[in-house]
Design brief:
Elements (H helix, E strand, L loop, with lengths): L5 E7 L3 H14 L4 E7 L6 H11 L3 E4 L1
């Protein structure tokens, strides 16, 4: 996506269940020109695999680990 009007930035650490609920909630409410940036502080739960799935499905989601 080029030049989003809004960036939603979320930091996380080992909160895969809450992160999943948050992303689903955001996706249900946003329109175009929005990006979601997830910054992971080194989670050792299933956060990386969850984010890989979301990133592949939704190009507006950026995952930084």
């Amino acid at each position: 996506m080029n030049n989003p009007l809004l960036s939603i930035c979320i930091n996380t650490l080992n909160r895969v269940d809450q992160l999943n609920l948050m992303i689903e909630s955001i996706l249900s409410q946003i329109s175009s020109n929005v990006e979601i940036v997830i910054v992971d502080g080194g989670s050792n739960d299933n956060t990386p695999s969850l984010m890989e799935n979301y990133s592949n499905k939704y190009p507006i989601i950026k995952y930084i680990n």
